């Protein structure tokens, strides 16, 4: 039995995960060495050493999640615990939260820090997948099947947007939408949700107008200005995007060489987090970009392939949710760096510096690997059984 299980693992997923983590670790050292000394006044390898610890811990969680049976996450008591836990952490940010990058989204205890909104992504994926899987018989019943998971989705998005962190709130909202699409719900029921959403938007519009100064802050509006006309405001709102363009353009096809980036020398604001792709493009050129985009793209496509092959509705929706999370987050980061969409401060999955993001993605991908293993194992088991 154990031999069959070991043979059933998707080692292409496992190898891609570890290669991207190691590639990200290398690029974090290159991108952060100058920033660490000049801006944060710490050793040049400070962020590299911290991320190295993050990678080791995240790898352990990845392996654990890859071994642990994913079907156990459907347990009602487990769902209650994780939903209550994340809700408590998100609410506690109002009192105990620490402001970073104009958002009160971190809880700091001693030298450790935690971003609850990152883990809210996985919680909403597990919860919505489990509930819709259990409600397959009446998935199109608006009160019983459709509404309950949507209420939690809106609740989480509202709390995270209030931090304010609109980028993460948008990611969670779109992840929820992909799970709804994959749930087997009829188009008619989905349109009812759209209409309900529009009605809520109209009802809440007066409140939004009253709080417009808090919601549409000068810092957030500057991102829109910098996105629309970066070169007109290259010394102001468009400074970040213009320097990202310069980094990408300087790299060209072959790149300037590992460690040879000019834009990381104080020009790019967060070269090891939000703008690490610009540094990769500058130093490693097209090859570096292809490694990252190809690796992340493979994880997303492999996840959707697993969802298609999975006969268990819960496993299929989990795979869709995890894959869409990686895909959406990658698009938002890369879109911001290239000027396709406004900059939101969303990290690049597995590549950017950050413990909370890496831990969440490692857990998620470990679950995806476990789903893939079960799909392949059941296929082999049933094939052998039918041949007897």
Account of the 3D structure:
GO terms for molecular function: lipid-linked peptidoglycan transporter activity; peptidoglycan glycosyltransferase activity. It is a multi-pass membrane protein. One of its GO terms (biological process) is peptidoglycan biosynthetic process. By secondary structure, the protein is mainly α. It has one domain (2-387). It has helices at residues 2-8, 11-38, 46-67, 76-96, 116-134, 142-161, 166-182, 187-210, 212-215, 218-228, 239-251, 276-309, 313-338, 355-387, and strands spanning 98-100, 103-109, 112-114. It has a three-stranded antiparallel sheet with strand order 1-2-3, covered by helices on one side. A hairpin with a 2-residue loop joins strand 2 (103-109) and strand 3 (112-114). The longest helix is centred in the C-terminal third of the chain and has 34 residues, at 276-309. The model has no long low-confidence stretch (mean pLDDT 86).
Helix proportion: over 70%
> Which structural class fits the helix and strand makeup?
mainly alpha
What is the strand content?
under 5%
What is the helix tally? 14
- Computed over alpha carbons, the radius of gyration is 22 Å
Strand order of the largest sheet: 1-2-3
Indicate the mean pLDDT: 86
């Amino acid at each position: 039995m154990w031999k069959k299980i070991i043979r059933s693992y998707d080692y292409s997923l496992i190898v891609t995960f570890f290669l991207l983590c190691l590639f990200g670790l290398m690029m974090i050292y290159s991108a952060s060495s100058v920033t660490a000394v000049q801006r944060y006044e710490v050793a040049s390898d400070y962020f590299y050493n911290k991320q190295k610890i993050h990678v080791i811990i995240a790898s352990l969680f990845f392996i654990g999640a890859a071994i642990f049976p994913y079907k156990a996450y459907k347990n009602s008591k487990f769902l209650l615990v994780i939903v209550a836990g994340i809700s408590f952490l998100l609410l506690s940010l109002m009192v105990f939260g620490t402001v970073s990058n104009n958002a009160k989204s971190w809880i700091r205890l001693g030298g450790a820090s935690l971003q609850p909104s990152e883990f809210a992504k996985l919680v909403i994926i597990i919860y919505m997948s489990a509930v819709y899987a259990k409600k397959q018989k009446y998935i199109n019943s608006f009160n019983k099947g459709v509404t309950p998971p949507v209420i939690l989705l809106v609740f989480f998005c509202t709390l995270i947007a209030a931090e304010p962190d609109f980028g993460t709130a948008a990611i969670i909202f779109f992840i929820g939408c992909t799970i709804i699409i994959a749930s087997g719900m009829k188009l008619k029921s989905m349109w009812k949700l759209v209409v309900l959403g529009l009605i809520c938007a109209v009802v809440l519009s007066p409140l939004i107008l009253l709080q417009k100064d808090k919601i549409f802050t000068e810092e957030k509006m500057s991102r829109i200005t910098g996105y629309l006309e970066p070169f007109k405001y290259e010394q102001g709102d468009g400074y970040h995007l213009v320097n990202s363009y310069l980094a990408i353009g300087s790299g060209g096809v072959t790149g300037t060489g590992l460690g040879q980036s000019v834009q990381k020398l104080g020009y790019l604001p967060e070269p090891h987090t939000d703008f690490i792709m610009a540094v990769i493009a500058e130093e490693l050129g097209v090859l570096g970009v292809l490694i990252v985009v190809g690796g992340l793209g493979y994880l997303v496509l492999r996840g959707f392939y697993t969802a298609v092959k999975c006969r268990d509705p819960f496993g299929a929706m989990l795979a869709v949710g995890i894959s869409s999370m990686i895909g959406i987050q990658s698009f938002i980061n890369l879109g911001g760096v290239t000027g396709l969409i406004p900059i939101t401060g969303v990290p690049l999955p597995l590549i950017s510096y950050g413990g909370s993001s890496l831990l969440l993605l490692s857990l998620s991908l470990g679950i995806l690997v476990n789903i893939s293993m079960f799909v392949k194992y059941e296929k082999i088991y049933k094939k052998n059984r039918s041949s007897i």
